[in-house]
Amino acid sequence: MAREFEISGMHCGGCVNRVAKALRALDAEVAVTLEPPRAQFADVQVSVDEVNAALAKIGDYRASEAA
User: Fold this and answer.
1) CATH assignment of 3-65, given 3.40.50.10490, 3.30.70.100, 3.40.50.300, 3.30.300.30?
2) I need a labelling partner for 17 at 20 to 30 A (CA). Which of 1, 6, 23, 27 fits?
3) CA–CA distance, 50 with 26 (Å, rounded to integer)
4) Which residues of the chain have pLDDT under 50?
5) pTM, full prediction
């Protein structure tokens, strides 16, 4: 089952690359997009807290449950 999170703080392709690199520690196949600003985990169950802990290491990005 896929998990999808909204990612705030991403403004450009560089942000997408930084976020994707950080989240690959949780799932090597994570998909990160700018429009809309989201991260999708295909088969790995991760919590919003785990995602935010990974993002906190790289800057002012924040994950929340996707609507």
Assistant:
1) 3.30.70.100
2) 1
3) 8
4) none
5) 0.93
